[in-house]
C-alpha cells in the first residue's frame, strides 16, 4: 500500500511539474483566436541582436515580457509568446536544418480593450540547427547551446 501511495504521489508531482512548465495563454488577434506559450524545446529567451551584433534588439524574458526595439532605436516593452496548440504543444514547420515558429507579441501598455485585441502581431521566428542560431524577423539573432 505504501508503494502505491508513493507511486501516486510521484505521478501527481510529475504531472503538476509538466503542467506548470507549459503555461498557455489564449489571445485574440485580428485574424482570430490563437494560443501562445513562452516555453518550447529550445532556449528562446535572451537578447537577439541585429546583424553585426548591434541595435536594434529584441529581448525575450522568461516571464513572457520583453523589449522590441524599432529601427529608429525606440524601445517598446512587450508581452510575447510562441504560437501553440491549446494543450501547449508548439506549432512549427520543420525543414531540413531549421524550424519556423510564429512569435506573437504586443505592446505591454495598452490604452483600451479594443487596443488589446487589435495589437497582437506575429513575427517570423526561426531556429537553424546546424548554425546553432535563432532569428527573429530574419535580422535579429542569438546563438544557442542545446
Structure notes:
- The protein has 146 residues and is an alpha+beta fold.
- Helix content is 18%, strand content 45%.
- It has two helices and eleven strands; from the N terminus they run αββββββββαβββ.
- Strands 3-4-5-6-8-9-10-11 form an eight-stranded antiparallel β-barrel.
- Strand 9 (121-128) and strand 10 (133-136) form a beta hairpin.
Features:
146 residues, alpha+beta, eight-stranded antiparallel beta barrel, 11 strands, 45% strand, globular, disordered N terminus
In the predicted model, the low-confidence regions spanning at least 5 consecutive residues are 1-20
Question: What structural class is derived from the secondary structure elements?
Answer: alpha+beta
SSE topology string: HEEEEEEEEHEEE
Q: What fraction, in percent, of the residue positions are helical? A: 10-25%
* Separate helix tally: 2
| Widest beta sheet: strand line-up | 3-4-5-6-8-9-10-11
In percent, how much strand structure appears in the residues? over 45%
The main pleated sheet reads as:
8 strands, antiparallel, barrel
Amino acid at each position: 500500500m505504501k508503494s502505491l501511495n508513493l507511486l501516486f504521489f510521484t505521478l501527481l508531482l510529475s504531472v503538476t511539474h509538466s503542467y506548470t512548465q507549459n503555461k498557455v495563454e489564449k489571445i485574440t488577434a485580428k485574424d482570430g483566436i490563437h494560443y501562445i506559450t513562452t516555453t518550447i524545446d529550445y532556449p528562446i529567451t535572451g537578447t537577439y541582436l541585429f546583424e553585426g551584433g548591434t541595435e536594434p534588439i529584441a529581448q525575450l524574458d522568461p516571464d513572457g515580457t520583453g523589449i522590441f526595439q524599432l529601427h529608429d532605436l525606440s524601445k517598446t516593452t512587450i508581452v510575447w509568446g510562441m504560437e501553440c496548440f491549446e494543450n501547449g504543444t508548439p506549432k512549427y514547420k520543420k525543414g531540413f536544418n531549421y524550424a519556423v515558429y510564429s512569435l506573437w507579441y504586443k505592446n505591454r501598455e495598452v490604452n483600451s480593450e479594443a487596443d488589446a485585441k487589435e495589437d497582437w502581431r506575429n513575427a517570423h521566428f526561426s531556429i537553424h540547427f546546424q548554425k546553432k542560431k535563432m532569428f527573429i524577423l530574419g535580422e535579429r539573432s542569438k546563438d544557442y547551446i542545446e
